Every structure is written in C-alpha cells, then in structure tokens.
Amino acid sequence: MERQRVLVVVGPTAVGKTELSLILAQKLGGEIISADSMQVYRGMDIGTAKPSYLEQERVVHHLLDVVDPDQRFNVADYVGLAEDVLANLQTRGVPPVLTGGTGLYIDALLDGFLFPDSSADPELRAQLQARAYEDPQGLFQELERVDPESANKIHPNDLRRVIRALEVYRRTGEPISVLQRKQEQEDRPYRPVYVGLSRRREELYARINQRVDQMVDQGLIAEVEGLLKAYPQQPTALQALGYKEIVWYLQGQIDLDQALEILKRDTRRYAKRQLSWFKRNQRIHWFNLSEQTEAEILQAVLSIWK
Questions:
Q1: 290 and 205: one domain?
Q2: pTM (2 decimals)?
Q3: Which of 153, 184, 215 is the last residue in one of the domains?
Q4: Which domain covers residue 172, as residue numbers?
Q5: Which letter, b or e, does each residue of 194-229 get, where b requires 16 or more Cβ atoms within 10 Å of its Cβ?
Q6: pLDDT tens digits, 138-184
Q7: Strand ranges inside 116-236, DSSP E
C-alpha cells in the first residue's frame, strides 16, 4: 500500500508556522492537523497561541480543543487521534498539513518514536531525581506497579534507568517496555515531507517577547483567572509555560512584571530546546524567515511537495 504523504511544518514557538501553514493548506486544498501538546485543551486559547476563530475559518483545523484542562492527555492519546484524522483525510483525498512545535508528538505519529530522549522533560526528570534522593525504594516500587517487565530487568539501585522508565511512563501513559516493542514492530504508513522554519536568534527572541506582551493585551490574565476558578486544583495543564507564571502573579507570589519576565525568559529557553529537537531530524528542509520572504519559501515548499 502506498504511504500517505504528509506535509509537516515545524519550528520553534513564535517563528511564524501558523501563517505559512494556513497559506500552504489553502494552496493545496488541505486541512491542518495541530501538533501542539497544549492547544488540545479547551479554554486555553491565548496562552497557547491557539489559531484564532478567523484563522480556523480560513482552513479546517484538527486536534484543537480535544479535552478539558483537568483531563489526562499524553502522546499515546495524541497519536491515536491523529491517526484517525489522517485516515479520514486520506479517504477524502485531502492533503494533510501537520504543524506545531511539539516534536515528541510529531515523531511518535510519523516514525513511531513513542518515548522521549533524555532531554525531553527536564522538570519531570528533576522531580523524579529529587524523589530518588529521598525515597529510592518507593521510586522502584512505583516502577514495579506501572511497568513490572522493566522493573524485572533493572536493578533497584540503577536509579538512572529507573528514572528513565518512569519518565517515559509519566510522559506517554504506557510502559517503556511496551513502547519499545511497538517501535520494533511498527512500519508507519506515512511519507512525511518536512519543512522547518527558523529566524535569526535575536529576531526570534524579539518576536517571543512581543508575543507575550500581545497575549497580555488580548486578555491572558483574565483567561488564567477563569481557568483557576474552574479548576482550583490547578491540574497539570495549568502548570504549563504561559499559565503557571500568571498563576504565581494572581496568587501574589510575584508581581506582574516579574511574571512576564520569567515567561519571556522561559519561552526563549523553550524555543532553544525545540530547535535542538528538530535539528536532529536530517530530513527537514530548513528555511530562514529572516533571510527569505514568505513568498520565496512558499514557492520552494510547493516545489518540494510536488
């Protein structure tokens, strides 16, 4: 069976993926599939830079507003939903444009790489390392509960591997042993065409800073206030970049200027990690929006797609 072609537009946050993806989808008569781990949450619009109502009117979007912020959602959930969307588009003969900055989701869907590398989630890793220091036996017992097959292969004192296995389980919802078997057996039915967008660092960082200011102007603080009222227990989604900083401000831990500076700084760091992730993929055709016009890039991408 012929593999399904998928146009994939990747790059760091605030680089300009949304507008180019919209134009490409319109030119190809395609539909957009979001690959953003935070845009799946309903009510989290401004802080995730979710495509606006007008942008969603221009092109059909998939995998936005999938779950409520207090519902669990992981990479395995994403892959299952995205596979369904791709199958539907193939049946209808519609070209898919997959776009977003969550490299783990993209890799898992297209290549079957269903577990992250060692740098995937520094915060989660730090939490697990702290627990390993305080209660190494309890950490191993958790692994025995969620992934007995891996626990049987890992010595209780090999905390590095214990942490690794638990990190994968927490990130994906499935044991690393299961995911490793899936990867070995899987032959993915897709033929991706990758397009990567970048900018000069100083320009990208300026755009990130500007985006944060725009989010505040658009009502980010009110959005977070509403979410806190609806979800006072602060589920994982509200601990994400763009939300936790505003929560700290609303709870009086820091002032607004501090919250925005932290948000800008951490978003710049996140963009750097995104670029590092995508740069490993040798199949990506890279374009620099600081050096090429959108029209030039559009023409080049359409040529590659043909």
A1: yes
A2: 0.80
A3: 184
A4: 122-184
A5: bbbbbbeeeebbebbbebbeebbeeebbebbeebbe
A6: 989 999 999 998 888 888 888 888 998 888 888 878 888 787 776 65
A7: 190-198
